[in-house]
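So, can you check what follows?
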Amino acid sequence: MSTAAAHRTHDDHTHSHGEGCGHVAVPHGDHVDYAHDGHLHKLHDGHVDECVTTGHTTHAHHDHQHGEGCGHVAVPHEDHVDYVHDGHRHASHEGHWDDH
């Protein structure tokens, strides 16, 4: 399935994300997301978008179990936690890990 990012503008976002802004920066495909208030923000054409994916992409053969103390950056994302691992954000989903 497609993991193309949907375009969902984060309205009324006055904070400027970038190096040293104080938020966790997460490389994601062709851009950088910033973890902010439980959302992942990306810069887009002079405004900030919510970085969301469409579809369901399972990370096959992922034996590592993420959780507290696993050694990977934990990023709160909406109703779950993503873990930054090998250039991806992994999220637990129904007994397996998804790429976000």
Residues 1-5 have pLDDT under 50 and may be disordered. The two ends are 12 Å apart (CA to CA).
